[in-house]
Amino acid sequence: MRILITGAAGMVGRKLAARLHKDGSLAGRKITALDLHDIVPTDTLSMEDAHVAIHVGDLSEAGAAARLVEQKPDAIFHLAGIVSGEAEANFDLGYRVNLDGTRALFDAIRLADYRPRVIFTSSIAVFGAPFPDVISDDFHQTPLTSYGTQKLMGEALLADYTRRGFFDGIGIRLPTICVRPGKPNKAASGFFSGIIREPLNGVEAILPVPRSVVHTHASPRSAVGFLIHAAGIDGDAVGPRRNLTMPGVAVSVGEQIEALERIAGADVAGLIREETDETIWSIVKGWPTRFEATRARALGFTAEENFDDIVRVHIEDELGRTI
Amino acid sequence: MRILITGAAGMVGRKLAARLHKDGSLAGRKITALDLHDIVPTDTLSMEDAHVAIHVGDLSEAGAAARLVEQKPDAIFHLAGIVSGEAEANFDLGYRVNLDGTRALFDAIRLADYRPRVIFTSSIAVFGAPFPDVISDDFHQTPLTSYGTQKLMGEALLADYTRRGFFDGIGIRLPTICVRPGKPNKAASGFFSGIIREPLNGVEAILPVPRSVVHTHASPRSAVGFLIHAAGIDGDAVGPRRNLTMPGVAVSVGEQIEALERIAGADVAGLIREETDETIWSIVKGWPTRFEATRARALGFTAEENFDDIVRVHIEDELGRTI
To answer: Residues of the signal sequence (chains A, B) (predicted)?
Structure first.
């Protein structure tokens, strides 16, 4: 089978490509070609591997999406997008990439007139405060960011294009991905990963919110697992509601720190310095805490069971060690 | 104040224009200009009236929306759209008019750089079965038609553009409008109005579903009332969730018929012939029944209290009689 990944140079895209390359198959079928698309060339996989092709471009540009689906990939992972902070800072860019780019891809598939599985990464940013204690699968979508709005619009298109038979889409609402590898960034959510990643590297991390803050996390490995699982599930079993809130681990920041201490010791956990940042805290207060994710669990999507596992996954996958 | 209505030649648009013309004011301010836009010229109001201007065009065409907002109307009623059946039958037309047209208008307002009140007519078609017995304000939006999808996307844009300060938008999710004046049409929902309208004209009407079917209705007069009320409410009191499910009268078809009989007599009600149409019934089964509309009621939106009133409004407004 031929597979296309958009946003293949991003954190999840790179991990997904590497996993597919390693597995050699998807949903029980041998992978014969892997098209990796992004706005910058991805260096994840060697070009010497004949069945991997690197594509560079902007999906919202005329003809770009049509060229990508010309060879009718059987599964399309649409991960490309401008991140939340950038979509908020640059209104035009966010709508062009996240909405117009997604619509251009979906329309190119529609006009190619075949019916591939399309996996779209959406986000819990489609939800906006105030929230109940636990957010059920039938809670309304009222995003409070342009990014969340664009994801919601992509979800709506995905469901309608699926209903009309243009493709067989699954929207995956990712929780916060934790522990994100790499350097600290300025995202308001950065500390959720930072307080684990930095201490494990022997570096101090700032905790800008109280330990009582609760949030839902899944590891990068689980995120890739969601996408792989979505490629193989029975579309009929999903029904017309194509956008699924993924499971995750709902924990307080205090419980995150306890998990780190259990696994890496008090000295490591001691590298977290509590220094409340009112700006960050006020942003975080508007974020969802717990999700039921009943439908996704029933459809076989799984995440870690507890935060200890999330820390272990990070140590194994990013630090190359075993606990 | 200057007012713009798009879709001014439609049923609700015409009634809204006539009401504004009669009132002479909106939200306590004198109306100095009324711009009526549609794809066809509306003949509602005389052009001899100097402050009424008729505009004809397609909002999704380049420059059309910018020209409409050039004179910076203080209140914009965006009613223009392709109806449900047509949006389903003509995919491209539906997305072009309902999505691209709406976005073009919203972007023209954004680029005109002022902050008018924008009232957008959405629909309960943003919801899709299965439903709970009563649909609460926080029930998720999973449309089952392209029309509903396009309305949901318009709602999402409206909320985001409002949040970003480009305009001050209110989305009005209209229930089924009953009794629709005019000739019978082929819409699956047509019978809800037909079983009242036709008998009152001495004509037989077919009832294609069982009397137990429950649905929510509001009169055309109430629909106009929602829009007028939306123009005057305090945006801060609405908060970031800008799209409101309107109140209505939830009744069974049997209760509709009882109301007709109470008001117009058994002979009139006797003109309804029950002839179940499995196709129509299967469509109607997927439609929402009752809504809480708690937020809209709290914000002062009102509809009829019972179906008798809906029948009376039709007799007064369309047949020129009083009960």
So the answer is: none
ipTM above 0.90? yes
Across the interface, which of A91, A128, A159 has its CB nearest the CB of B240?
Answer: A128
Query: CB-CB: which of B138, B140, B149 is closest to A160?
Result: B149
**Class for the domain spanning A190-216+249-291+303-318:** alpha beta
Closest chain A CA to residue B88: A164
Confirm if A81 and A145 have CB atoms less than 8 A apart: no
**Both tokens assigned to B181:** 């004046």
Per-residue pLDDT of A81-90, as tens digits, reads: 998 889 999 9
Q: How many CB atoms lie within 10 A of CB A201?
A: 12
B264 phi/psi in degrees, rounded to 5: -115, -5
CATH class, B2-174+220-245 region:
alpha beta
In percent, the amount of chain A with pLDDT more than 90 equals: 87
A292 touches chain B (CB under 8 A): no
Distance between CA atoms of B151 and B123, rounded to whole angstroms? 7
CATH topology assigned to domain A2-174+219-245? Rossmann fold (3.40.50)
CATH 3.40.50.720 domain locations along chain A: 2-174+219-245
Does the pLDDT at position B50 exceed 60? no
Q: Where in chain A is the domain with CATH 3.90.25.10?
A: 190-216+249-291+303-318
How far apart are the CA of B85 and the nearest CA of chain A, in angstroms? 14
How do residues A255-302 score in pLDDT, each as one tens digit? 999 999 999 999 999 999 999 999 889 888 888 999 999 999 999 999
pLDDT at A161 over 70: yes
